[in-house]
Every structure is written in structure tokens, then in C-alpha cells.
Amino acid sequence: MNIIAPISRRTAVAASTLVLAAIAIAPTTAAAAALAAPAYVGSSDVAQTPSDVLASTPWKTTSAVDQDGNRVALDNPAVSNFVGWAYFKADGTYTMYNLDDSPKLHGDWTVTPDGSERWINAKNDAGQVLFERVVPITQLDKKVFTYRIFPNAADTSVYFDIVHTKTNHVEPGSDGRGPGANGNGSADYHFNNGNSH
Predict the structure, then answer these.
(1) 47 vs 71, 92, 113, 164, CA distance in Å?
(2) What is the pLDDT of residue 20?
(3) DSSP-derived secondary structure letter, 99
(4) What residues does 131 pair with on adjacent strands?
């Protein structure tokens, strides 16, 4: 026995409309989902902390500027002790060298979470702290690291901004294992010749 129920024209149109709508939406939704989910999220997409940025590359002192915006020669006695190569490691240690690759400083470092200040200490070969210094950071990004020094701490109207730029200079004495060689930045010795940085 065949039972054929009559379908009203209104029901047939409504059902057809729903089927066509479902077919039209499905590919659009799939395409939108594919666009919303990136195929690859590289490390450059991950937000770095100021400490991560500082430790991400070796730095070279490339200029100094006074409070009036005038360039200051790097051999000027007011800034010359702050000139060199700097290697800040992710483990919170650092080493610094003069531009002729001679040893300068080593010790520990931190950057405030908001990136406004850098703290360092300098240690002798026995690990004793020789001095500590906090400097305001005026710029810190993947290419430039600038901090401010005050010759007289009581007079903040006179200052020098010490500008460092990213470099690929391999850390001296690291046998190419330093951050400039994409290594782990470890060195087998530490030193200090009395210079400040």
C-alpha cells in the first residue's frame, strides 16, 4: 500500500530554502574558521617581556646623546666607561667587553617588568659584588637598547643617553657559543678589570 501524503507548496519552498541556506553557509563557515586559525604561530608572535628582549641579542654601544639632544663622542670621559659590547643572558647573568674585546664586567642583571629600569651588579672573580647600579631605560626593543646615566645623581637635569644597537658580534672567549653565534651564551670564565658600564 502506497501512502502519499500531499506536501504543500509552502512546506516544499521552506524546506528547499533551509537546504540551500545550509549549503551556502557551510563552506563560508569552514573558510572563516580556516582564516581565523593561523597555520603556524612563530616565536615572533609571542609577546616578549623586557627581560626577554634584552637577553635576545648582543648589544653594541653605538652612540651617546646629552640632555639637549647633542651627540657625544664615545671617547668623551663622561660616557667612555659605558661603551662596549654587552651580553645579557636569560639566566640573569651578563658579561661586558670593551670595543677592543678586552674584558670589562660581569655580574647579574634584571629589568623591571614594565621595562622602565635595568639593575646590574658587578662582581670580582671571587663572586663578591663590587657595585650595583640602577639606570632608567628610555628605549628597549629588538633593535635598540638605551639607558640614561646621570653624572651627578642629585642633578637629574644633566644626563647622557647611552644607545646600544643589536649586533651579531660573537662574545669574546665563547668559541662562537655566545648569543652572537646563536649559541647558549655561556662562557667558562668571568672577569672584571675595574671599568664601569
Answers:
(1) 33, 19, 13, 22
(2) 43
(3) T
(4) 122
